[in-house]
Amino acid sequence: MDLQSILGKLFANADAVGIEGIFQFIFGPQQAYWSQIGAGTRTEAGRHASPDVTIEVAESDFLAIMAGIANVEELFASARLKIGGNMGLATLLPQIIDHARQGGGAVEKVDMNKRYPTPPRFSEKITASLPMQTVVERRSRSEMSLMEFESRYLPNGVPVVISDALHDWPLFKLSREESLVHFAELQGITRHGDYVKKTFSTERDFRSTSMADFIASLDQPAVKGVDGEPPAYMGNNILPAALMQQIQYPPYFDTSLFIPPRIWIGPKGTLTPLHRDDTDNLFAQVWGQKKFTLAAPHHREALGTWSTAPTGGLDGCDFNPDAPDYQRFPTARNVTFLRVTLEAGDLLFLPEGWFHQVESVSTSLSVNFWVNSGRGW
Fold first, then answer.
1. Does 234 have pLDDT greater than 80?
2. How many independent structural domains does the chain possess?
3. What is the pLDDT of residues 270-303, one digit of tens each?
4. Do 201 and 53 have their domain in common?
5. Which residue has the higher pLDDT, 373 or 55?
6. pTM exceeds 0.85 for this model
7. Does residue 310 sit in the same domain as residue 205?
8. In a domain, 301, yes or no
9. Does 210 lie in the same domain as 178?
10. Reduced 3-state DSSP string for the chain
C-alpha cells in the first residue's frame, strides 16, 4: 500500500476523537503528503502552504509505527522524528494512530476541550468503606516485603511512600553533570505559559526542546511569566530507550503490566493541578523534592470533578486545595487532604482513582510507571 493511502486510512476518522487540523508529513526531499482532518477529511501529495503540524520522519520508521513495531513518542525522543508547528495538536498523534490501528471505525465524536460528567469508579467504593486515612505511610524498601504490599496496600488502594527505593538505579547515582552525557541528542516536549489552567485542553503551548539543554537551563533562576504563570516544564514525556538502562522497574508488579515509563523534569514551581488517572501509578523521585496533595477517590462529587471523555478516564477537578472556594464547593470541607513530600530516592504508590496535585519544591527529575494492574475491574 502506498504512503498516501496509508495516511488516508490513518486520518479517515481522526475527527471522531476531537482532532481537527492539517498534518504535513515529509518523508524526503521529493516525498511529502498532507492530510486535512475535519469536515471533508482528505489526503493529498505535496506540501501544504500552511500546515498546522509538520512531521519529518523516514519512510521506514513511519511504516514501523503503523505496523505497531515502533513508538512515535520514542522516535521523537531519540530525534528520529521531528515535529514543527502546533505541538499541542501534535501530541495527539499517538491517539490518532491508536484509533486507526484498533480499526478506525466511527465513534462518538469527542470534544477535547469539553468537560463531561464523571462516571463513578469501583475504587470509590473501596475507599468509602475503609477508615479515613489522614497520613501517607512511609516505609523503607528493606522492611516492606512484596507479600505485604500485595496484601495490605494494593487490594485496598492505600497510598504508601517507599523510601530508599532507587538505590539500584544508575540514574539516581549520577550527578547532574554526568547525567547530561546520557541526555545528549535526546529531545522532549516542554509546557509553557499558563499550562495549569489548560492542563487537559488542546490549547496548550507545547514546544520541542533538547533534553540536555533544558536540564542545563535548570541551574538558572526559574522565571515566571508576567501574569504569574509557572516556569517551563518538561512533563509527561516518554522515557527514551537510551535511558532505560539507567533505571529499574519497581518489583511490585509483573513487568508485563507496565505502560512505558514517563519522565518529568522541571525547576521549582512547576505544578500539575488536582486530577486523577485511570491506572495505578508508581512515582519515583530521582532528583529534588515534589509535594503531593492527595484526596481519596470517593470525594469525586465534592471536588467538582469532570472528565475529558464521556466514558471518563482522565478526570480533572475545579476545586483547588491551595485556594479552597467553599462557597462554590461546600462539601469539600469534609475532604481530608493528605500532603506528602517526596525526597530523592522515594517511590510513591498512588492507587488508581486517587486525586493528586503535584508541585516541584526544588529542581526535580521524576520517572513514573503507570500499571495496568486490573485492580478493581
1. yes
2. 2
3. 999 999 999 999 999 999 999 999 999 999 999 9
4. no
5. 55
6. yes
7. yes
8. yes
9. yes
10. CCHHHHHHHHHCCHHHHCCCEEEEEEEECCEEEEEEECCCCEEEECCCCCCCEEEEECHHHHHHHHCCCCCHHHHHHCCCEEEEECHHHHCCHHHHHHHHHCCCCCCCCCCCCCCECCCCCHHHHHHHHCCCCCCCEEEECCCCCHHHHHHHHCCCCCCEEEECCCCCCHHHHCCHHHHHHHHCCCEEEEEECCCCCCCCCCCCEEEEEEHHHHHHHCCCCCCCCCCCCCCCEEEEEECCHHHHHHCCCCCCCCHHHECCCEEEEECCCCEEEEEECCCEEEEEEEECCEEEEEECHHHCCCCCEEECCCCCCCEEECCCCCCCCCCCCHHHHHCCCEEEEECCCCEEEECCCCEEEEEECCCEEEEEEEECCCCCC
Co-location of 228 and 332 in the same domain: yes
pLDDT band of residue 23 (cuts 50, 70, 90) is very high
For the stretch 31-72, pLDDT in tens is 999 999 887 789 999 999 999 999 999 999 999 999 999 999
